[in-house]
């Protein structure tokens, strides 16, 4: 270190040039690091999406999900497997640790899928979901038109808008939702078909065998090669009608003789409505994992403007959800807080240093350290967001430079020689060790944050990384750049302390003298305050994280599982009309069911209503989001058959991605029997619904979905020489579930399907009358070989690690999450006895909270042990290390009091604030003890008492203690007071640090000198042999 300082002072031009190079690298990094509202809080995961047309949830589970799960269990590095089986869809999710590359994870899953495909039914092909995350749903829009039908709008979106958006760099996928997908329907007439002695299967096979294009290799003739092409595809509906089905009495029977050919649409699994007025077609742009949200959205907007010029004038593309707004608002919050905090820090520097040049030198360290942090973020792949930049404290960054510059000023005030270079070198070397020690403590207190896993790790590791990069950069600058520039800029001179500082010091000396004469009261009071503060922790509410206000609301809607799409759409339009009446609402868009690419396993009875809100200063009927939610909840209760719950778009997607649960609390009932699980879940629901604070309580719907069951009678099959496959084909083809052929028009593909008229498949009785051809040629009704009846069955079947589970869901309002869950757990333990083989798992935000707090209770004490080790290495004294470490409980008093006074819960954000506070509080103590030890080794008057020396030393350290404490706390004041978007996460952290600094500073100035004097009196020779004299203060945040 001495050599580094010597080099910096002898080669000042090199140091300044290198600093400019670092700044250039930082500016370059700033232009290339991604900008987001938040870090990507979803871990590495791979989704396997398998569409199984026509299959009920039970068959999907048994024939599709189980084979895929079995193949994926034990994938190297995977953290488990969870799945949902629904009508026609299996969605399997495989989460991986954060350090696993997503493309490597997909490769592992794909390898296992290749083995599992052999166990799947013929024609079922599992596919991997897009390389995106729930936070990547960054741009959503709707297409509307006064003259085009939903089918035409859907075609326009799928073949014009979507392909062009998919080519935008950084876009992983563009999903379609709502509208109608066109198909050519061959609607057979069962009476005419029976008259010609044919069946639906005959028509289907005729189309499949007569709508082909083929190649015949090539031939060579006269030295030239000719490619052979067989053109047998149909090009229009008219050609479909001319396809020959068979013959009857020697005459050909064509499709047109037994069926009507028309343009129709595939059965829909979802719909989209807007503002309670109409159905629309919606698109969603999914960002590629790791891409820069700001750049991707900007590129999407540009491409969308280009696309609009090629659309018909009556077609409108209206964006309704754009993460640019959230990114911009959170970025403004970050900039506002940092600028205000920086100005407050600079004001304190001017106030205490009373030297404009010195203050400017220290202040210049702030932007340079930030640029160094940007270099680190770019190298390690961190984005600029609310978490990585929002918790930076400029007081922490300038601390080392404050120590260095103040040492220069103090020496220059009394220096009269000509060797200015030597003066700066001696002053820099003198404070170099405590600066290095101070930064080491700051880094040590952030070590626990790097051990966090899951969502909490992804949330706070970027913050810890940025802080560590910035303070390490400030350390480098303090040892090189600051000495070099100071030796140029600072001038020798004599100065006097400010009058207000002189007066304050005199008052402090008098107060401390009184305390040293009667030390027992303040020590006892301090101890009592610590005990009260620790005891009161149990009465502070707990939660995982404060709810971030995204500026929009997402209302999840539920209806009866047996509802059809028409009724679901009618209820959605009614709910939208109610919500749209609120003056705070800009627009509403409801998505029912699932999109074309089934990344979400929602049924027709489920919907997500996006409620886009005006800026808060334009609200008139509500003063807060909580009040608006309460009013919306009351207003929507008038819609019959509609259950609603409230969340926010990103919050819901994150919760769902992390644990498959969209609410604050999810109780998983895991057991082998689905009916038994559901019965237990209903019992738990009744308990949760009676606990104060519950909101949006419900059970994930697992049954109640209408079914028509066809129980095959094998004796009858044997009698007629039929197989189950014959029955399946007859039913599938009559219902239009199987594609017979397709029309091809350029890039456009239109399926051709065969089906019976709606009246012949309207109910169980109609299904029973479907005809099947026996090998002998006779035509049989379905009831001849199967029992057909209407019943109900499961809507979905959820799995956790291949075990069936049911789910109880609840949000929490008006109460903290921790106490709510504790009461629920107590009630369930007392009132519910689980049968053998059934167990409960607790998920949602509560699961994240328990995991994070459990990890912190282990690693925080270890970090304190590390800090104790650093203190012992510095002082070579166990008693003095313990003395300095005693500042931690003193700091707790103020931090806990701040939470109480501001009505904040003990969240993970507040816990991180306590971690940061511990390091700052310890360093406050070091300032005092370090100088008191130095006073002990100086040439004291022989008749000076221990108390007198302690008073004199403590008074000397009053200014640096106050300055460093003010710099640290004022840097957090804008975060603590901000009401801007994103400040909800910063507020608990900043409040804890400010409150803790107030009490730890007061107690450091009074209690710590008392305890030091007491130790001195017991062993007056203790520190002399091992202490390293230091005049200046160690680095303080």
Automatic annotation (TrEMBL):
<feature type="transmembrane region" description="Helical">
    <location>
        <begin position="463"/>
        <end position="482"/>
    </location>
</feature>
<feature type="transmembrane region" description="Helical">
    <location>
        <begin position="882"/>
        <end position="901"/>
    </location>
</feature>
<keyword id="KW-1133">Transmembrane helix</keyword>
<feature type="transmembrane region" description="Helical">
    <location>
        <begin position="522"/>
        <end position="540"/>
    </location>
</feature>
<keyword id="KW-1003">Cell membrane</keyword>
<keyword id="KW-0812">Transmembrane</keyword>
<dbReference type="GO" id="GO:0008324">
    <property type="term" value="F:monoatomic cation transmembrane transporter activity"/>
</dbReference>
<comment type="similarity">
    <text>Belongs to the resistance-nodulation-cell division (RND) (TC 2.A.6) family.</text>
</comment>
<feature type="transmembrane region" description="Helical">
    <location>
        <begin position="856"/>
        <end position="875"/>
    </location>
</feature>
<feature type="transmembrane region" description="Helical">
    <location>
        <begin position="430"/>
        <end position="451"/>
    </location>
</feature>
<keyword id="KW-0472">Membrane</keyword>
<dbReference type="InterPro" id="IPR004763">
    <property type="entry name" value="CusA-like"/>
</dbReference>
<protein>
    <recommendedName>
        <fullName>Cytochrome C peroxidase</fullName>
    </recommendedName>
</protein>
<dbReference type="InterPro" id="IPR001036">
    <property type="entry name" value="Acrflvin-R"/>
</dbReference>
<feature type="transmembrane region" description="Helical">
    <location>
        <begin position="989"/>
        <end position="1015"/>
    </location>
</feature>
<feature type="transmembrane region" description="Helical">
    <location>
        <begin position="386"/>
        <end position="409"/>
    </location>
</feature>
<dbReference type="Pfam" id="PF00873">
    <property type="entry name" value="ACR_tran"/>
</dbReference>
<dbReference type="InterPro" id="IPR027463">
    <property type="entry name" value="AcrB_DN_DC_subdom"/>
</dbReference>
<feature type="transmembrane region" description="Helical">
    <location>
        <begin position="907"/>
        <end position="929"/>
    </location>
</feature>
<dbReference type="GO" id="GO:0042910">
    <property type="term" value="F:xenobiotic transmembrane transporter activity"/>
</dbReference>
<dbReference type="GO" id="GO:0005886">
    <property type="term" value="C:plasma membrane"/>
</dbReference>
<feature type="transmembrane region" description="Helical">
    <location>
        <begin position="958"/>
        <end position="977"/>
    </location>
</feature>
<feature type="transmembrane region" description="Helical">
    <location>
        <begin position="334"/>
        <end position="353"/>
    </location>
</feature>
<keyword id="KW-0813">Transport</keyword>
<feature type="transmembrane region" description="Helical">
    <location>
        <begin position="360"/>
        <end position="380"/>
    </location>
</feature>
